[in-house]
Design a protein that fits this description.
The protein is α/β, with parallel strands linked by helices. The chain has two domains: 27-72, no CATH class; 76-83 and 122-326, 3-Layer(bba) Sandwich (Glucose Oxidase, domain 1), CATH 3.50.30. Helix content is 16%, strand content 18%. The protein has helices at 6-11, 36-39, 66-70, 176-179, 193-199, 224-228, 239-247, 273-281, 293-296; strands spanning 74-77, 96-101, 116-120, 128-130, 151-152, 155-156, 167-175, 190-191, 210-214, 236-237, 252-254, 285-288, 302-307, 317-319, 323-326. The strands form four sheets. It has a nine-stranded mixed beta sheet. The chain has a two-stranded antiparallel ribbon with strand order 2-3. It is globular. 38% of the residues are buried.
Length: 327
Amino acid sequence: MQGLDQDRQALLPAPSGRSRPAAAAPVDTSTPNGTVSQRGIATPDSGAARPGLATPSGGFASTVTPWEALRGRRVIDLAQPMRRGMPQSPNHPPFRMALERRHGDMTRPDGGSAANELIVTGGHVGTHVDALSHVSQNGLLHGGRPAGPLQSHLGFSDLGIDTFPPYLGRAVILDVARVHGVDVLPAGYAITPDDLDRAANGLTLIPGEVILIGTGWSRRWSEHDAFIGARDGTPGPDEAAARWLAAHSPAAVGAETIAFEHIPAGRGHAVLPAHRVLLVEHGVHIVETMNLDPLLATGAREFLLVLNPLPLVGATGAPVRPLAVLA
């Protein structure tokens, strides 16, 4: 674990013996992949070949339709299940769900019946995307826009999560835990630019795409208090690492913890510099509480990502069910 000072090295446990697969060989990105929308699809009478799903070598599978290229591909759900009592930030309203109507409460003349539920939730619980209206600095949102005129009891008239354009394209995952030879980074571990450089070795980071950070924290989802990290903190990018991410101009970044960024032991969410850097200064959306463990277990480093939060008009965030599609 070269490059770590003694204090940071002490945070890292010895390898557990449950190591993930060795990292894939460096990806040939001499011809970078764009998103599906950037590549486009030729019309039947244009005479142009139709691209298939991107392959690890940086090319495309064949001149087949996208739906044919996707047939048989592995799809990995990157969302945590939403349920009452799940780990979440204490700063947001909790998720609640109850059956409003049960089978038999009303029966139709033909014997049919239906059930439904009432759901009450904050926009920042479970796996979710932060809108650019979520964080301000000195009263200003992204682009220097004053927050006051945009907000009302109905939400935000602009920069709400409904303005997030659905994403379908290439994403990369930087497995920082694997860099250090562990399955899970320690609570309170601050990810640095050097960590990200090492995790990104062999990958090309393309502006407008999505960067995910692997910490292994998904494995602690069932440990309610430990996952939240109020006492011991959570691993995540420090301010310098957030600037490293912003310098690559991603459409969004994501991680496994409830706050994405480094939370020191005993500090809680007192200050969130990475949110300021990404949301306010650079307009980069943040995805939090992702379940990245099944993706990390494959050893994949780049993949097709579907990211489309609920279009809650004027909301500062919304639940999302990200999907990774492996070639």
